[in-house]
């Protein structure tokens, strides 16, 4: 029997984005360049995350010249800020790690704004649970007059969004507004290869994902929804609970298997926990592009207009029909 021929015709992420750009003859490759800098940041962080535990062990083993190990989230932020600025294609950057937006100096200024969480879920690092980088990309309105308003736009204005998950493998999921594609880092090549073309989320899922420890503070629709997941009254099977506490991993599973991810408002945090610009918007964009929905409890998540760069919002996202259910509960409430 013939051995399977070695596949050498690989669809790398760069090739994929160049192909997509072919559909826009007016584009001059700026987006491809920007993306290649984001990809470089992801590879750098992936390698740092892989070494994180080891560096600590070596440190414990008595490294005396004691340069203190930089915290991974701080390091990741530096990596992405440098990668984005040096691309020459960005003008405003919003990072979860920086209180103020970063305005890129004129000589390196380009037309894109990038909002990102360089290392989300970093409380999970020490136990080896998956963490990730999340990003959303906008275009400025007027290159000679760049203001904060260029990033305080509704999510519907985003051009592209994605995340990179640093887990048992390193996976980058991206949408440029034309569906969702997943790429896995081949460590031997150092390239992201298209492994999950045209991701579509199932219309209904069997999983709900929420921090149930907050249940005593939930509002009625959220409480009712979760109750129905556990004790369905319509004869449907009860759902499974999966909650990692790392948004990228929880959303990635939701995207591939279907189901719903919730970070609702509660009495203690009336706007929930997750940040609009670099958590809620990118993940909502991906969900819609994959055929799912994202809802805040009041409206379509992407139609929010953030007032401040670190604004938060409650979020319910995932399979189309599961999100319909929570929308119905909020509608009957009001
Ligand atoms: P972080 O930005 O401080 O890492 O927090 C964000 C994380 C998300 O990854 C995750 O969905 C959420 O916090 C979990 O919050 P909780 O521990 O309240 O369930
Ligand atoms: Mg975060």
Automatic annotation (TrEMBL):
The keyword Cytoplasm applies. Gene3D superfamilies: 3.40.190.80, Fructose-1,6-Bisphosphatase, subunit A, domain 1. It catalyses: beta-D-fructose 1,6-bisphosphate + H2O = beta-D-fructose 6-phosphate + phosphate. Keywords: Carbohydrate metabolism, Cytoplasm, Hydrolase, Magnesium, Metal-binding. GO terms for cellular component: cytosol. Residues 11-197 form the Fructose-1-6-bisphosphatase class I N-terminal domain. InterPro entries: FBPase_C_dom, FBPase_class-1, FBPase_N, FBPtase, Fructose_bisphosphatase_AS. It is an enzyme of class 3 (hydrolase). Residues 201-330 form the Fructose-1-6-bisphosphatase class 1 C-terminal domain. It comes from the Eukaryota. Its EC number is 3.1.3.11. Belongs to the FBPase class 1 family. This is Fructose-1,6-bisphosphatase, cytosolic. It comes from Oryza meridionalis.
């Amino acid at each position: 029997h013939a051995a399977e021929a070695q596949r050498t015709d690989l669809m790398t992420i760069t090739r994929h984005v160049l192909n997509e750009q072919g559909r826009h003859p007016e584009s001059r490759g700026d987006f491809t360049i920007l993306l290649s800098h984001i990809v470089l940041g992801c590879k750098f962080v992936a390698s740092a995350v892989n070494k994180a535990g080891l560096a600590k062990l070596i440190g414990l083993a008595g490294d005396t010249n004691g340069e203190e190990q930089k915290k991974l989230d701080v390091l990741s932020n530096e990596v992405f800020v440098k990668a984005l600025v040096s691309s020459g294609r960005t003008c405003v950057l919003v990072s979860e790690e920086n209180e103020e937006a970063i305005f890129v100096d004129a000589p390196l200024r380009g037309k894109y704004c990038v909002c990102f969480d360089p290392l989300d879920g970093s409380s999970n690092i020490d136990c080896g649970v998956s963490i990730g980088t999340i990003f959303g990309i906008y275009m400025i309105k007027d290159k000679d007059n760049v203001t904060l308003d260029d990033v305080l736009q509704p999510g519907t204005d985003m051009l592209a969004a994605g995340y990179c998950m640093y887990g048992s493998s390193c996976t980058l999921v991206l949408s440029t507004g034309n569906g969702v594609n997943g790429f896995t880092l081949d460590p031997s090549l150092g390239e992201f290869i298209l492994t999950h073309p045209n991701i579509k989320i199932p219309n209904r899922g069997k999983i709900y994902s929420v921090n149930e420890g907050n249940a005593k503070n939930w509002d009625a629709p959220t409480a009712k929804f979760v109750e129905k997941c556990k004790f369905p009254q319509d004869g449907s099977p009860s759902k499974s609970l999966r909650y990692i506490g790392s948004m990228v991993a929880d959303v990635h599973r939701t995207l591939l298997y279907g189901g719903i991810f919730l970070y609702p408002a509660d009495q203690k945090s009336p706007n929930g926990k997750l940040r609009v610009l670099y958590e809620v918007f990118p993940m909502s964009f991906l969900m819609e592009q994959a055929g799912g929905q994202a809802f805040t409890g009041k409206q379509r998540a992407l139609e929010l207009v953030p007032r401040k760069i670190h604004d938060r919002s409650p979020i319910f996202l995932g399979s189309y029909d599961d999100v319909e259910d929570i929308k119905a509960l909020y509608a009957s409430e009001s």
